[in-house]
């Protein structure tokens, strides 16, 4: 199956429908609770980029700043 939706891939993996390549942030709890297990670690590189973009020349609103901070903590714990 080819799928570009993380939630769908997580759902299929949790139901035992096969292997899924998923970002750590999406399955952190499932791994900790042993509902999923990591395989092929030696064959996967932990590379990738995630960007938050907003129009240039604008001040970052408090709401956007809160979202950026939330995403940084939730998706990449320990990176700051």
Automatic annotation (TrEMBL):
GO terms for molecular function: DNA-binding transcription factor activity; sequence-specific DNA binding. Pfam families: LysR_substrate. InterPro entries: LysR-type_TF_proteobact-type, LysR_subst-bd. GO terms for biological process: DNA-templated transcription. Residues 1-71 form the LysR substrate-binding domain. Gene3D superfamilies: 3.40.190.290. It comes from the Bacteria. Signal peptide: none annotated. Belongs to the LysR transcriptional regulatory family. PANTHER family: HTH-TYPE TRANSCRIPTIONAL REGULATOR, LYSR FAMILY TRANSCRIPTIONAL REGULATOR. This is LysR substrate binding domain-containing protein. It comes from Azotobacter beijerinckii.
